[in-house]
Amino acid sequence: xxxxxxxxxxxxxxxxxxxxxxxxxxxxxxxxxxxxxxxxxxxxxxxxxxxxxxxxxxxxxxxxxxxxxxxxxxxxxxxxxxxxxxxxxxxxxxxxxxxxxxxxxxxxxxxxxxxxxxxxxxxxxxxxxxxxxxxxxxxxxxxxxxxxxxxxxxxxxxxxxxxxxxxxxxxxxxxxxxxxxxxxxxxxxxxxxxxxxxxxxxxxxxxxxxxxxxxxxxxxxxxxxxxxxxxxxxxxxxxxxxxxxxxxxxxxxxxxxxxxxxxxxxxxxxxxxxxxxxxxxxxxxxxxxxxxxxxxxxxxxxxxxxxxxxxxxxxxxxxxxxxxxxxxxxxxxxxxxxxxxxxxxxxxxxxxxxxxxxxxxxxxxxxxxxxxxxxxxxxxxxxxxxxxxxxxxxxxxxxxxxx
Length: 403
Fold this sequence. Notes:
By secondary structure, the chain is α/β, with parallel strands linked by helices. It folds into two domains: about 25-240, no CATH class; about 240-403, Nutrient germinant receptor protein C, domain 3 (GMP Synthetase, Chain A, domain 3), CATH 3.30.300. The chain contains 14 helices and 13 strands. About 35% of the residues are buried.
């Protein structure tokens, strides 16, 4: 009997120290912010555009003429990012909740003039904000215009941008997904500058925030990924486009899959090589107290298309194709290195490689790395390409047509 009384007494006392749901947050009391766009106005104040999810409208949007949009957009200005958030809260009947914010859009004008460093502290410091949020640059357009765009298929445009970015990074290799955490790490890592993907408008920007943009078979306004922004000391200095953008990702050993088009005889880009695997290493040698960078990449893949008559059963033909692929990749990587050196920004991480392998030499080079040593680096590129498969057939039917 005494054991039962002791147990009841223990349970009763335990109830007194239970905290309960003291920090509960009801969904009906929260405004879920899915994306933030950051610009600056003519007065030098920050302009924040907050994309807030309308939960009841996400699933049903577009099913009828009177359907409401899946997002609402609120704009506020302030002297700093915290001030922007505070001022935005006066326009919403619910508490602004940033735990679901997965996209931060920064205008290229702000990134170029002021840099991205000043705006990151407030976002990273907020315990409700996830540092896994993706960061992109609004190219030739206001960040707020990107955030307020309505998109089909993915009803929340923040999700649309992120999914597109993940897919193109995996398949094409022209863009790279960078989180807030990775961006800050690049800013503070010696010998490596950050790169961010650009987002542009396609179509009519005036229609981007209207419901009719969702009701057309071909959207009147679309969001597209375009180029990689190059940064130096936190400021945007230039853009890498297409092959050069892919070259930067390639040197950083981030390519998962892509296509390389090569010429054959007098015809341009008629053979497509689908990269299925690649491994790139960056090594450092010291020569006369100066580092020399060696880039070595090994590539494997398949023939995806051949728009010329070819006998792919011949080893000589395959070897010739591999040499052309090697030459094309080498040319692209060298062009990327050249543009980075012209802008004196080490987005390729060469300084990080020197720091890692030659720490004593790095101490001597670090202070003048970007402006003095990096632009004058000797860089060699070696590419080894291997065609593993030719698809479900060897010779194209074009060979029979020619005969």
